[in-house]
Amino acid sequence: MANQNIRIRLKAFDHRLIDNSAREIVETAKRTGATVRGPVPLPTKMERFTVLVSPHGDKDARDQYELRTHKRLMDILDPTDKTVDALMKLELPAGVDVQIKLN
What we know:
By secondary structure, this protein is of the alpha+beta class. 24% of the residues lie in helices and 47% in strands. It has a single domain (6-102), classed as Alpha-Beta Plaits. It has two helices and four strands, in the order E-H-E-E-H-E. It has a four-stranded antiparallel beta sheet with strand order 2-3-1-4. The N and C termini lie close together (11 Å).
């Protein structure tokens, strides 16, 4: 693959899961002879939800929940055909969203 780069973006709710997946991708790419830039941690998106506990009335009784979305960005520079094949065969956990772009 002449003069192409692969940009991989990972999203997950669990930071341990995303870090392990990023480590697997980096090890696979380096083993096949490509150079890797990253993983770069992107800002964590935090969504907060406030829910009334009582079915009616008492506005003071509330629960608060938080949902954190962790993101990582990696660039694989000068990937070989072997690198692309190895990345396609890689088994990642179900809780990790992977987006791949070719530049």
